[in-house]
Design goal:
This protein has 394 residues and is mostly helical. Helices cover 67% and strands 4% of the residues. Strand 2 and strand 3 form a beta hairpin.
């Protein structure tokens, strides 16, 4: 009897302290690789502007260290603890976006998308808070609605709740990419909770129709303005996407330079640190367009390797979601998985000119303190869910 009790206790301890090292390794690899590529892509511009080749590297490393500390803390807190804060998270997500219109708002590159935190002297991007807050809120809402989420009324409610945050992100910060990501996270979570293909097919067709109308309006507007330009800068981005060479020195410049970088890399690349486009030819080389530098320096081989790492990361999260102890844990992991998947796909699509140019960072790799910190907090939530899974279920 004593031996059986010891065996049961040992099994319980193993289950309680299980840790998903495979997921952690992939995240750490992406972070380390990102630091290397940030230094490679930004060293020339950082020296010209700040006199320090490692300027962006140091700032990103600081954000990663803070993020890792937050990730470890969140991973060691039972994930069900956060269930009590879903309403706070939702309303804070909406309220914090308004801060960009206060004296705390920070303008950069012609847009006010950051908020200054006076105590620590860092900038925070409210859109990143909204992504995390929406994941938590919708995960709890799915659990509370139960089977009601499968009804038409439940579907409409789940689609309406994210709209205030989406509208604020777009209207107040002019950040269309983050608004799309928040909506994408919401759609994916609702789809997993209520896999009624008919509703989502109809919604997809409506989105395609709306996109076609916008493209038509952009082309019509460009035809009426000299040099193919429009008063609407988003229309100009669409026309530049359709024909980058029509305005190679302005709206099509970043797209063309990114494609030059990708094309010149070939299969094996020019070698780490050997990029030419990062020498003030490619804007935002260390941020939105870092995948172009990866392709140029490491070639098709490096690009495919990174894509495979993201696929492995998402696959690992899918396993955790499938084995989560309850619906709330599963939906948390699905939300994080949706965030990373949507953002990575959109970034690569923008860089390769598959969709019109809009500012989207590559998760864990692009330069951006707010993005990497909140991504690591989300990974902490996933690890917290994984720790509550019985070992025999994995």
């Amino acid at each position: 009897m004593a031996a059986q009790r010891r065996a049961k206790r040992k099994k319980k301890e193993q289950s309680e302290y299980f840790f998903d090292y495979s997921l952690l390794f992939i995240v750490l690899f992406l972070l380390g690789f990102g630091l290397v590529m940030i230094y490679s892509a930004s060293s020339y511009g950082a020296f010209e502007e700040f006199g320090d080749t490692a300027y962006y590297l140091k700032k990103q490393l600081t954000a990663i260290i803070i993020g890792l500390v937050m990730m470890i803390a969140v991973a060691n807190i039972p994930y069900r603890f956060w269930e009590h804060f879903y309403l706070i998270g939702y309303f804070v997500s909406i309220a914090i976006i308004w801060l960009v219109k206060t004296p705390l708002g920070v303008e950069s590159h012609g847009a006010t998308r950051w908020v200054k935190i006076p105590v620590i002297g860092m900038n925070l991007q409210p859109a990143e808070v909204a992504k995390l807050g929406m994941i938590l809120f919708l995960a709890v809402l799915v659990c509370k609605m139960g089977r009601g989420v499968r009804t038409f009324r439940g579907f409409v409610l789940m689609m309406i709740f994210p709209l205030p945050a989406v509208a604020e992100i777009y209207l107040l910060t002019q950040n269309l990419s983050s608004a799309i990501i928040v909506m994408g996270i919401s759609v994916l979570m609702v789809f997993v909770a209520s896999p009624d293909y008919k509703k989502f097919v109809i919604m997809g067709l409506l989105v395609i129709a709306a996109a076609a109308v916008v493209i038509y309006l952009a082309v019509s507007s460009a035809e009426n303005v000299a040099a193919g330009e429009s008063d609407n800068f988003r229309f100009r981005r669409i026309t530049a996407w359709l024909d980058p060479e029509s305005d190679p020195s302005y709206t099509g410049f970043q797209t063309l330079q990114g494609l030059y970088a990708i094309g010149s890399g070939g299969i094996w690349g020019k070698g780490l640190g050997q990029s030419m486009q990062k020498l003030n030819f490619l804007p935002e080389a260390q941020n939105d367009m870092i995948f172009s530098i990866i392709c140029e320096e490491l070639g098709l081989f490096g690009a495919i390797a990174i894509i495979l790492m993201f696929i492995m990361l998402l696959w690992r999260m899918m396993i955790i979601a499938n084995n989560a102890p309850d619906l709330f844990g599963a939906m948390l992991v699905v939300g994080v998985m949706g965030h990373i998947a949507v953002q990575a796909i959109l970034n690569i699509a923008v860089v390769t000119a598959t969709i019109p140019n809009t500012g989207i960072s590559l998760p864990f790799i692009s330069y951006g303190g707010s993005s990497v910190m909140f991504l690591l907090v989300e990974i902490g939530l996933v690890l917290s869910v994984a720790r509550r899974i019985q070992l025999k279920e994995l």
